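Narrative of activities, Objective 1.

The group set out to show that a structural description can be obtained from nothing but a protein's sequence at a throughput compatible with the screening campaign. Below is one input-output pair from the validation batch, recorded exactly as produced.
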Amino acid sequence: MKVAFVIRRNCPRCAKIVNRIIEIAPSDWELVFEHEISKYIKMKTVSIEEINADIIITVGGDGTVLWTLQYARGSILGINMGGLGFLSEIEIGEVEGSVYRLMRGDYVIDSYPKLKVVLDGERLKDATNEVLIHSDRIAKIRKFSIFAGDNFVDRVASDGVIVATAVGSTSYSYSAGGPVLFPTLNAAVISYLAPFASRSRSIVIPSEEEIRVKLVGSDQGCKVIIDGQTEYSMDSSDDLRISRSENKADFVTMRRSFYDRVREKLVKNVVN
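Output recorded for this entry:
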């Protein structure tokens, strides 16, 4: 089995976790290391774009997982060294036991839909969590027209628009008041950041519908940010189209159901 390792930037603690996994890894594993690890461990490394592995072990937070999904190929097993870590399967005290389960094949692969993002005819990176269209100036709202297929959905003035996958519904969209969707649903949720009109609410759209976002008026510059990792400029003349991608985000799952994860990550310490 080919196993790759990606760690959060400037994280010596993350490198120590990788070193411990190396010590217990079986000899028949082919190990691959992303460049960042070379700061801490003397190993031959490759760029993130060169990684194509059966399993990619990420050590960091959800940002590390999302960055890896944008550039590498393989099923993700995340070790949480960050805060919430919703996309990470393993907490810091579970590393060794989880590696042994990996050796035994005691896991499953869950595949979740990504979003295809096309800006003015140019295909951008796919989104695992969300596409954010945000004002490029602080404290300046923008006017957006939203379409689903051939249907007009809404015109809203807000700081931004979030189009999230079902997996991403627990992330930025959730913090903006959006609903939590079960991750296997073929749907996207549209949420608004600080909408000027209180009538504007999140809406769930079937994934077979192409979502189109247009800026209304002049001097309406925005940034299109995918999974918090890559950023593009958008102006009033541009056409942004978001639809279901042919690609999927694959995750190694060992224990928790989605309901357990929601309870532990989003509800814990709120409801007893």
